[in-house]
Amino acid sequence: MKHLLSIADLSAEEITQILDTAVSMHEVQDRQVKKLPTLRGRTIINFFFEDSTRTRASFEIAGKWMSADTINLTGKGTSVSKGESLRDTVLTIDAMGVDMMIIRHPASGAPAQIADWTDCSIVNAGDGTHEHPSQALLDAYTLRRALGDLRGRHVAIVGDLTHSRVLRSNLLCLRALGAQVTLVAPPTLMPSGVAAWSAADGFETSYDLDAVLPTVDAVMMLRVQRERMSGGYFPTAREYAVTYGLTARRLGLLQDHAVIAHPGPMNRGLEISADAADAARSLVLDQVSAGVAVRMSILYHLLAGEGDAQ
Known about the structure:
five-stranded parallel β-sheet, 40% helix, four-stranded parallel β-sheet, Rossmann fold
């Protein structure tokens, strides 16, 4: 495996292997000295054309804890801001002999295109409204730690599905691991062509959050991406929160063992209430912690050779 561009590129066995390796990587966080020699001598570029806190920081920490040389770049800090094309910019960086570029870009498909242009490994850290594979892997890792084997578990993914790259990757990952998935959203935020998609991939859809919540083992709330909205997808923020937000009242609809996830950043009071975000069953901070471990595992599987493995 040279690149991580889409969850669809991974088999169920490869997903499980990444998650299993992350278990060992997670132990590093409890050490006083958080350092492994695994990627010593490797150079990783974190190239982010969009803002990010969790993904960018966790990839940087993952690289440094594995002894790689990590460098952070943004579109504003490179020659892209001077009018240089994306192709020329990434070819310039590739010519410096880097081993990996971790790319976040607002255009869907940009990391896949960059992978065709360069010789180094490419990791998709989020491309437009397409995919976010490392997020899906860390979400699956977190749910697996909380619930055990995900085969047969029921997960509801709720919220702004139309604009969510997290949805697409999570749906592919959870279905590959045998989970039952239900998508919940208002009609205006349900992805176009979802009926044909669900028939092909075996998931359910619903517009009624209250009917779905009592049946789930986990509910994943997605952020309302107002920066990607140009029209009236719902009348008011208050109406959205009442109809599709995970409110304090709705916590009472969940089974005792059911857990709450959110990939962040959260719009408190919109798609998720403070009561839900801070509940004992909330995995929000567990997801952040898992992000470093899973991204360490991704770097290991993409960059570590047989000698490094030993």
